[in-house]
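notes to self, project folder thing:

trying the whole complex as one job this time. last attempt i did each chain seperately and stitching them together was a nightmare. two parts in total, labels are on each line so i dont mix them up again. if this works i'll redo the older ones the same way
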Amino acid sequence: MRVIHHATPTHAANGVFLIVHANPNPARRRWLLRALQGMIGATVIAILYPVARFLRPRKATVSGALELVAPLKPKDLLNGSAKPFDFAGKPCLLVLLPEGAKRLAQGERLQTDDVRAFNAVCTHVDCTVKYRPSEGDIFCNCHDGVYDLDGRNVSGPPPRPLEKYKVTLRGEPGQEEIVVSRQA
Amino acid sequence: MKLLSTLRAFFDERLGLEAVRALARKKRVPNHGCSHFYYLGGMALFLFLVQIVTGILLSLYYKPSPDQAFESVRAIMTEVEFGWLIRSAHSWSANLLIGVLFLHLLTTYMMRAYRRPREMTWISGVLLLGLFMAFGFSGYLLPWNELAFFATRVGTAIVGVIPFIGDHLLLLARGGEDVTGDTLARFYSLHIVVLPLVTFGILGLHLFLVQKHGMSVPVLTAADGEHRTPSIPFVPHFLLRDMVGWYLALALLAALSALFPWELGTKADPFASAPAGIKPEWYFLFMFQTLKILPARLGPFEGEVCGVLFFGLCGLVVLLVPFLDRGGKSRMVLNVLAALAVAFFIFMTAWSWFSGPGQGVRQIMLGTLLVAVVLFLLIPFARAHSAARSAVYVCLAISVIAFLSASGWELMR
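result (full assembly):
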């Protein structure tokens, strides 16, 4: 390719294409390049901003309830197989202690501490735990995490105790409603 | 700096980047009166990228079931931050993409870029246009609104009139006798899995062939000798100009999406009557209008069957253009057919777009505008100062004047 330093219309008409490096003005060239890069950068940001906002999860549609009447009665908890229920979007595990089960069988009034409620999400990596009446503990199937009936992490990988909810019982013996409440 | 060059050497050795750089340095693009048409392919590619990105984003919230599809799209439009923008961008970009592809096809035909050895580039391009129309058709159903529901019923019923295999195709397309949740699932799978996979394959071939054969030079310019045609380096000269095309597409897309968010309509009710004035997307209007005006029977045949076979034949002719053009008379016939096809497309689209009574002036506005666009594209193909160039100018002037008069008339009313 011929390099021509001063292009004339004749050159263009002859079909000679050239990149004119003649009379280079580095400052202006640098400024133009910066402007171009800046413009492209601004475009990328203008595109990424709505995309990032789009990716943000929607506002949760679960209730923020602080208190709930459990959909279970104490007698449902007798064999320890009651499933956790939805309390403000988290599974809530109800445990009837052995003493409570005894009292219930004898038709006595339950003590408040006989029924316990926990946030059933394991503190290790978010599996849902279950109550094991035979072992008298709360167990996580995923990684063999064990909690005692106070929710304290006893063995296995869980790093923290389970979150414990306050339980209130109201109504006639045997027909008590279980009210679970939590701190905001 | 030392670290940077070490890293660069590391990747160079393993990925062979030097070959890419050498290619980028070597690649040149012809520069002539019709070079602007080269940017249409780049714009289409850019819009396809927009489709991929916005499509993936929409799929994060969309739920393909008749019970939830409409509600999930409504949630995207109202609850998700910038959801309205992403969905509008997806819909508008789809329409712009098809529009750009029509222009790309038309200008490629005008430049006769399908000449040997580029026949397969043309064929893959026509297949891509068909694929993108299939994208449009399958995507249209996904919001499960009234319009989409009936458009899908009609569109799949048209497939059903194809002789011999129509019934089977209809069952295959709908996944049953009627348009149901299974149809939605099929269209969803088609739209986000099957079509993208096929498109990536054919698009890869198309781009590879464009790279392999280089840009075609129009006959008019090539007559002086292809090697004497001036050219510019691909990097950065052509790339920067291509970027202008991308920015144009982006600006148009952003403006349309922001000013005219895509409507959602009302949820489909499989047992309700079709709403008044129901129409498909604009790129199917010419077929829609033709089927509408065809009589029930054409001689011994059903009108609809004739229409469907006719459009099938048209598609086949477009696909085989490189082989039908054998110079001389055959080229003349093709050119006349192409002009007729474009005129037919414009006429039918303008007619169908404003279909209500008393819309004649608007039909003329749209028709003359489209004619002006096509004539404008023709300018570089007529030699400067020739009778042909003058004829193009005169026709262009007439259509612009007709458009302006019609617009003026419409504004005065």
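what i see at first glance: The longest helix of chain A spans residues 26-55.
need to look closer tmrw
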